[in-house]
Amino acid sequence: MHRFANPGRFLRLSGRVQPWLIGAAVLTLGIGLPWGLFLSPPDYQQGDTVRIMYVHVPMAWLAMGGYTGLAVTAILSLIWRHPLADLAARELSPVGAAATAMCLATGSLWGKPMWGTWWVWDARLTSVLVLFFLWLGHAALVRAFDDAERGARMGAILALVGAVNVPIVKFSVDWWNTLHQPASVTRLNAPGLHVDILYPLLVCALGFTLAFMALVLARTRAAVMERRIRTLQIAAARRAEEPGNAPLDARLAGDLA
């Protein structure tokens, strides 16, 4: 793992992967969203309201899966001191918070016609709301300290503590009597969806996952480059203060070139 922690190696590798990742995301979503939103049949009970699921379900999976990834970066940061783990976690939390917010918003849009209300303090809904606050808390905490390393340590601790909520979100419909329907896709016996609905849902989920990964990768690349430029600026400023050295702007231009 530490072989990929070198910023230069990471930038070179991610630079080759990112265009393919973006292209795959655009292609998959270009197929999945029209298939699900316009071409798939309505549900026999929910009617056309079921089409919200093609966005809602992938966002719910990304909210949980993304937070699991955040916990992994926390382990890499706290135990192995992985140099890129802190940057990846810092850039992951805003994207994860946005996915969770989309999950809550689309769930409310579905709940109004199905349940007759925008929100209920259901176990699943409440645990996802807690997950959203955990995402926001991590995003704010890592940026709350002047010492970036200290903020990263505090954020990693919060990520590990908050990971306890992920299985609660997942199994809340099994542990408690809730209004939210139980799992339809990941049941052990067989999916509870017809293939005409299941297949476009899986394509949409893959497309949103690829887009999520591409966005996090792009943000992490930008953070690495920003840190490298800042390091060069500091080094150039120190050299410029030494007698006989070139002015700061000329030294920095030479380093960046």
UniProtKB/TrEMBL annotation:
The keyword Phosphoprotein does not apply. Its main location: membrane. The chain crosses the membrane at residues 20-39, 59-80, 92-111, 123-145, 157-177, 197-218. Pfam families: Cytochrom_C_asm (PF01578). It comes from the Bacteria. Residues 14-180 form the Cytochrome c assembly protein domain. It is a multi-pass membrane protein. It is found in: Cell inner membrane; Membrane. InterPro entries: Cyt_c_assembly, Cyt_c_biogenesis_CcmC, Cyt_c_biogenesis_CcsA/CcmC. Keywords: Cell inner membrane, Cell membrane, Cytochrome c-type biogenesis, Membrane, Transmembrane, Transmembrane helix, Transport. Belongs to the CcmC/CycZ/HelC family. NCBIfam families: ccmC (TIGR01191). Required for the export of heme to the periplasm for the biogenesis of c-type cytochromes. This is Heme exporter protein C. It comes from Paeniroseomonas aquatica.
